[in-house]
């Protein structure tokens, strides 16, 4: 099963239509809500996000994609669940024996394929297997409270949950931790970051991450990029923050064009990802010694890559998550907007930049006569721009000896 086959299959399905055959759904804003079929639900707790192709129950914690839903409700495996889904209509159906597509689905969707090609050609199969195993662990997570009612919906949308104490051996290191699912830019579940529940447990590592694999490489992943892609393109810029909870706070405040490094180290893989969507980066790391040091290093690196990078300051000791919790959504959003406004250059700074750029270009003209002529052109342009007389601006800014 290749990555393309997975994408084609998912694209052909409407999760709203599939789930709607089991429970009535009503539109509520951007989501569809209904009674959860997995527990005795009396009030609509099931939320279906058609745009992301996912569902979550705010009461019992069941979540996943369309395959996870059918697998759970029909009590079948992944392949059997896919076999029940009609590719053409996106509706649940038991296919007949003469339906060639239905007969081929189990074979196409089988993860354990015979190795017939090179390792490079088999990589999509391995990655698909890892992604499916990750989705299985995601389904085990319990609902996790954010401790802030204004943050909880975003936490649920991102699939944040608490790992139970009893988990398969592979996930033992993540048990009884707050788990952040990490998706790649295409939405595949690459891995997890599991945070200790209390900072008082100093004997435990703060974070436990998935093992490095073909899907999970921290140097090539930006947390929240999958959810932020369209907003980054729309806004023309991106906020770069430090941690997982910082991304969630920014998204909850309306700044959906936010991603995280998941640390303070900026790698070439991160830069390549950012460049695919924008060249304007607002660096907003934690306001502590490590965060300031990292921001001081990151901004010039991004600038050296031809990107427009500015640093957004936070109150001493704060990060986006802590500031959101302290101020509340509206006040936090107002703070960020004002901080961004203060980073924008003034009219005078823009003019000075243009003057310096013009002088820099003129300095490369060797012929004095040609240089003087071009200097007059630049002078006239700036005079018209500022409404100043030649005599008023020339002595201060336009002496030919500058070049």
Present the secondary structure layout.
Blueprint (H helix, E strand, L loop, with lengths): L2 H9 L3 H6 L4 E4 L2 E4 L11 E4 L4 E4 L5 E2 L1 H9 L3 H6 L16 H10 L9 H20 L3 E2 L8 H6 L3 E2 L15 E6 L5 E7 L11 E3 L15 H11 L2 E4 L2 H9 L5 E3 L7 H8 L4 E4 L5 H16 L3 E4 L8 H8 L1 H15 L3 H16 L5 H19 L3 H8 L6
Structure report:
- This protein is α+β, with helices and mostly antiparallel strands.
- The chain folds into four domains: 110 residues, Zinc finger, CHC2-typedomain (DNA Primase, Chain A, Alpha-Beta Complex), CATH 3.90.580; 95 residues, DNA primase DNAg catalytic core, N-terminal domain, CATH 3.90.980; 125 residues, Dna Topoisomerase Vi A Subunit, Chain: A, domain 2 (3-Layer(aba) Sandwich); 56 residues, no CATH class.
- The chain contains 16 helices and 14 strands.
- The strands form three sheets. It has a five-stranded antiparallel sheet with strand order 1-2-3-4-5. A five-stranded antiparallel sheet has the order 6-7-8-9-10, covered by helices on one side. A four-stranded parallel sheet has the order 12-11-13-14, with helices on both faces.
- The chain is elongated.
């Amino acid at each position: 099963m290749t990555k393309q086959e997975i994408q084609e299959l998912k694209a052909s399905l409407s999760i709203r239509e599939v789930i709607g055959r089991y429970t009535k759904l009503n539109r509520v804003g951007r989501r569809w809500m209904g009674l959860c079929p997995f527990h005795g639900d009396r009030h609509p707790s099931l939320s279906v996000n058609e745009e992301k192709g996912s569902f979550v129950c705010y009461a019992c914690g069941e979540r996943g994609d369309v395959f996870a839903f059918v697998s759970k409700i029909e009590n079948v495996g992944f392949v059997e669940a896919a076999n029940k889904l009609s590719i053409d209509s996106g509706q649940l159906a038991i296919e007949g024996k003469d339906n060639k597509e239905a007969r081929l689905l189990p074979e196409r969707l089988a993860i354990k394929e015979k190795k017939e090609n090179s390792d490079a050609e088999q990589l999509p199969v391995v990655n698909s297997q890892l992604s499916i195993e990750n989705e299985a662990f995601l389904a085990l997570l319990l609902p996790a409270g954010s401790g802030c009612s204004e943050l909880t919906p975003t936490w649920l949308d991102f699939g944040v949950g608490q790992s139970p104490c009893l988990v398969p051996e592979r996930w033992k290191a993540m048990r009884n931790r707050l788990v952040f699912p990490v998706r790649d830019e295409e939405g595949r579940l690459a891995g997890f970051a599991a945070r200790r529940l209390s900072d008082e447990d100093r004997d435990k590592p703060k974070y436990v991450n998935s093992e490095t694999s073909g899907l999970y490489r921290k140097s090539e992943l930006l947390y929240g990029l999958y959810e932020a892609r369209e907003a980054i393109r729309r806004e023309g810029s991106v906020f770069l923050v430090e941690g997982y909870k910082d991304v969630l706070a920014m998204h909850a405040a309306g700044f959906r064009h936010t991603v995280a490094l998941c640390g303070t180290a900026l790698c070439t893989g991160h830069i390549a990802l950012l460049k695919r969507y924008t060249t304007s980066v607002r660096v907003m790391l934690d306001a502590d010694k490590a965060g300031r040091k990292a921001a001081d290093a990151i901004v010039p690196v991004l600038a050296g890559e031809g990107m427009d990078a500015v640093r957004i300051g936070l109150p001493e000791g704060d990060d986006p998550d802590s500031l959101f919790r302290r101020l509340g959504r509206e006040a936090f959003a107002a703070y960020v907007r004002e901080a961004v406004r203060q980073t924008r250059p003034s009219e005078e700074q823009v003019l000075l930049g243009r003057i310096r750029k013009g002088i820099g270009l003129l300095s490369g003209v060797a012929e004095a006569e040609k240089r003087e002529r071009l200097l007059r052109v630049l002078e006239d342009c700036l005079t018209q721009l500022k409404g100043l007389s030649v005599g008023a601006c020339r002595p201060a800014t336009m002496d030919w000896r500058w070049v």
